[in-house]
Write a structure and sequence with these properties.
Layout (H helix, E strand, L loop, with lengths): L1 E3 L9 H14 L2 E4 L1 H7 L15 H5 L5 E3 L16 H11 L5 H9 L3 H8 L31
Parallel strand pairs: 1-2, 2-3
Helix pairs in contact: 4-5
Length: about 150
């Protein structure tokens, strides 16, 4: 099972967020954040201190939650800009979440590559095993390591 957006997590303090993360992980519930849509829609009624509205899923990774970054509904009223690039979503998320350390950038890259693959190749999110009908996916990026592609 997976939940998406979860924008209310963007305003929760670290301790309760960690507890929520543990409960999500224990339940096997994955979290997918859609940064372009969430940041575009949140706080439209505010003039000052506009919330970003993007859940800090990089913090949930430490609790064992399978997290991913994605986009949908591109070029519609909810996400009026974009090109469906997941590299661009990881870059946007890193900027919104103020991520700059290499391990955290790798985690952002994992959230558009290996972690979402768990959602499609595993029956149980918390312990992906071998799946006989698993499809192989190959990605070529103009940077090494792959997380570097997000910063260009």
């Amino acid at each position: 099972m997976a939940v998406g957006h979860v924008t209310k997590l963007s305003v929760i303090d670290h301790s309760p967020l960690a507890e929520i993360g543990r409960r999500l992980a224990d339940s096997g519930v994955a979290v997918t954040v859609l940064p372009a849509t969430d940041v575009f829609l949140m706080g439209r009624d505010r003039r000052l201190h506009v919330p970003r509205g993007v859940a800090p899923v990089h913090r949930l990774l430490g609790q064992g939650v399978t997290c991913s970054l994605a986009t949908n509904n591109v070029l519609n009223p909810f996400t009026p800009f974009g090109d469906c690039s997941l590299i661009r979503m990881a870059n946007l998320y890193a900027n919104i979440a103020q991520i700059g350390r290499e391990p955290d950038l790798r985690a952002c890259f994992d959230m558009i590559t290996t972690l979402p693959a768990r959602l499609t190749t595993s029956r149980k999110l918390s312990s992906p095993g071998s799946v006989a009908s698993c499809t192989s996916i190959w990605m070529s990026l103009p940077a090494a390591p792959g997380s570097r592609a997000m910063t260009r």
